[in-house]
Amino acid sequence: MAEMQLSSRHLLGIKYLNHPDLELIFETADSFKEVINRPIKKVPSLRDVTIANLFFENSTRTRISFELAEKRLSADVVNFSSSASSVKKGETLLDTVNNILSMKVDMVVMRHPAPGAPAFLAEHIDAHIINAGDGTHEHPTQALLDAFSIREHFPDFKKLKIVIVGDILHSRVALSNIFCLKKLGAQVMVCGPPTLIPKHIESLGVLKSYDIREALEWADVANILRIQLERQEIKYFPSLREYQQYFGVNRALLDSLKSEVMIMHPGPINRGVELDSDVADSDQSIILEQVENGVAVRMAVLYLLAAPRSTTKV
Fold first, then answer.
1. Domains recognised in the chain with CATH numbers
2. Residues 6+ apart with CB under 8 A from 289
3. How many C-alpha atoms does 199 have within 13 Å on its Cβ side?
4. Could you read off the pLDDT of 54-67 as tens digits, one per residue?
């Protein structure tokens, strides 16, 4: 794999990437997917690079996926958890990161509850910053792995109709997916209760619907999001039971559609709320493919951002 670079030295959001960046990431991820399916899954591409994973919010899939990607690339990895750090004693974000950088860290992967935290770091420290989710703003690597997973089944995005269903208002996954899919040329719709659809969402070039059946009849692919109760300070709908009744995706609903829809979910799934088990575990679902592809896509992002420092080819 020849060395190539992204247009930005950070991955702060899909908003800041261009179409060639997306294609380069996908092509690089293709190569790394072959690597992680070989008997020996490790390559020395980032052997001299030190990466710090800074997670100021809880995470399971994203954190494990990044750590596995880093170790597959032979990087040195430092894991940081705010719950067991001096942040609890009042240390500022900048002081925390500067202390870590003094240990000669080249890249920082950060999840933070404050929108814009990764961008703030990028302005103040000399290291590559990867946004692993900042508040309700963006989650760029999730959107990249979602698009990469769709691309394996539908190579031409310009012919695709994709609906994002659920808590659009609080979802950083939804915003990053909208930016990514629109840049790739897909038609995008959002669907959910009126209280969970942001005002003026159409300004992003998407359609909207408050009818789950109408949305699924329209779509080729449905990306189902969970209800983010931890980000909701007030009640946006009467009950989870009512949400499930009007917006939950179940087997009977899918079987009643005129054509088959591919089902996705970024996880974690609230089974029996936004998605029933007989849908999540069905042949129409590519949820486990998304998880596998997450490692390859994150390997690609890490490799491409570190390219100026890396001298070893895949």
1. 14-138+292-305 (3.40.50.1370), 140-288 (3.40.50.1370)
2. 149, 152
3. 0
4. 999 888 889 999 99
Segments in the chain below pLDDT 70? 1-3, 82-90, 228-238, 308-314
- The reported pTM is 0.92
**Number of Cβ atoms within 10 Å of the Cβ of 94:** 12
The string over 129-148, giving b where at least 16 C-beta atoms fall within 10 Å of a residue's C-beta and e elsewhere, is: bbbbbbbbbbbbbbbbbbbb
Distance, in Å, from the CA atom of 156 to the CA atom of 94, rounded to the nearest integer, reads 43
> From residue 99, how far is each of 3, 16, 73, 91, 125 by CA, in Å?
31, 28, 25, 11, 11
φ/ψ bin of 227: left (φ > 0), alpha (ψ from -120 to 50), beta (otherwise) = beta
C-alpha to C-alpha distance for 165 and 147, rounded to whole angstroms: 16
- Write out the two tokens for 228: 């983010």
